[in-house]
Amino acid sequence: MEQSRFADCVKKMQSGDREGLKIIYEEYVGYIYTVVYGILPSKEDAEDVTSEFFIHLWDIKDRIKTEDAHKAFLVTVARNMALDFYRKNRAKEYLDEEMAEEPSGENIENDVIADVSLKEALLSLKEEERQVVSMKILSEMTFEEISKTLNCPMGTVTWRYQNAIKKLRRYGYE
Q: What are the residue boundaries of the structural domains of the chain, listed by start?
C-alpha cells in the first residue's frame, strides 16, 4: 500500500468510517501476523495479538501520523504489542514456577537487574537505531526490506544497525 492510500484510510478512520480500518486490515493482516508470530511462540497468541493490534489501531487513529513511513510504524506497534504480551505471560509463567518452588528471592533479583540493564542498553540507542535493530532481529527483515519500509538508503540502515550493535556491546549484549 502506498503512503497516500494509507493516509486516506487513516483520514476515513479519523472521521469514524470503519472502511479505512478494513482496507488497512485486508492489506496488512498477514504481514502483522508474521511480525507477531516471529516473537510469540504460539499461533493462538499471535492471532490474539494480531486482532488486538487492529483494535488498538482504531483506538489510536487520531494520533497516527500519516506523513511517516506507515509500514515501519505498523511493525513497531505490532512488535511492541507482541513483546508486551510475551513479557506479561513470561512473568506470569515465571511466577507460577516460582510459587511451586521454595522462594529464594535470588532469581527474581537477578532477573530484575538483567531487565534493567537491557532497558538501559536499549535506551542508549536513538529511536532510529532501536527501530532498525527491532526490524532486523525481531522481525528478521533484511537490510533491503528495512530500507524500503523506512524509505531510506540501505547504507543508512546498515550504518544505524552497526552503531546500535556497538552501543549494545558496551552493555554486554550481542
A: 1-103, 114-169
Rounded to two decimals, the pTM is 0.56
Sequence-separated (6 or more) residues with CB below 8 Å from residue 160: 126, 128, 129, 132
Residue type, 91: A
For the domain made up of 1-103, the CATH class stated in words is mainly alpha
- Cβ 46 vs Cβ 37: under 8 Å: yes
DSSP assigned state of 138: I
Query: What does each of the 174 residues of the chain score in pLDDT, given as a tens digit?
Result: 888 898 999 999 999 999 999 999 999 998 899 888 887 878 889 999 999 999 999 998 888 887 777 888 898 899 889 888 887 876 555 444 444 554 444 555 555 444 545 566 666 778 788 778 877 876 677 888 888 877 889 899 899 888 888 887 776 655
Pure H helices in the chain: 3-14, 19-37, 43-59, 70-100, 106-123, 127-133, 143-150, 154-170
Q: What is the fold, at CATH topology level, of the domain defined by 114-169? A: Arc Repressor Mutant, subunit A (1.10.10)
As to burial, measured by CB atoms within 10 angstroms (0-12 exposed, 13-18 middle, 19+ buried), residue 66 is: middle
